[in-house]
Fold:
Amino acid sequence: MIGFLIAIISGALMSIQGVFNTQVTKDSGIWAASSFVQLSALFVCLSAWLLTERGNLLKVFSVQPKYMLLGGAIGAFITFTVIKSMEVLGPAKAVMLIVVAQLLVAYIIELFGWFGVDKQPFEWRKAVGMAVAIAGILIFKWK
Structure:
């Protein structure tokens, strides 16, 4: 149950952050806004680390395979693409497309067992669920 609650909070925060970042971009530019977002996230994360873990920060560099360290770089492009999509489509359409894309890519990662994730068998009910989500986008967009 706690996992569901955390996921709901995460989704809500992503939507709010996207709207905030899009507004900041209007006054500063997309890369300045993205840089500020990433820098403020660094300060929050370092503060949380100081208050909780205080382990060796450099242990992250022992992660294998090394490409797993690209999460922060990917995060910069996530910030950019969320801002641009919300600017062009508006928050509701952008978030709906973002969430369905996340779901589709996550399911493909599970199906093929990419990036160290346990490979999962194909299930028709999940494919149908994905089709329903895509149909939802079409219905939402329909005028």
User: Anything to note?
Assistant: The radius of gyration is 18 Å. Residues 2-28 form the longest helix (27 residues). The mean pLDDT is 91.
